[in-house]
Specification:
The relative contact order is 0.25. The chain is an alpha+beta fold and 79 residues long. It is built from one helix and four strands; from the N terminus they run E-E-E-H-E. It has a two-stranded antiparallel sheet. Strands 3-4 form a two-stranded antiparallel ribbon. The termini are far apart. Strand 1 and strand 2 (11-12) form a beta hairpin.
């Protein structure tokens, strides 16, 4: 297996850097999905990868790579 070297905007990823992501998380009660995830973990157990537990499983839909996360200021609507 070839080592993955993360990059951001065409350069090596800076340690501690982040970018905004849009995630979709599965329903906790979706047993068929979580059974599939468990089977994938088992199939990949011999490889040098970290398989996330059910509570961290997600699909990355979009990454905003226009600027590092530290350049963003998230604003929340007043409650």
């Amino acid at each position: 297996m070839k080592q993955f070297v993360p990059a951001f905007q065409g350069q090596d990823w800076e340690s501690g850097a982040g970018a905004l992501h849009l995630y979709v998380r599965p329903e906790p009660g979706d047993r068929a999905f979580h059974d599939l995830a468990a089977a994938c973990r088992k199939a990949m157990s011999g490889y040098p990868v970290w398989c996330v537990p059910d509570d961290l499983v997600h699909i990355t839909v979009e990454m905003d790579a226009s600027a590092p996360q530290r350049q963003y200021q998230l604003r929340r609507a007043p409650a």
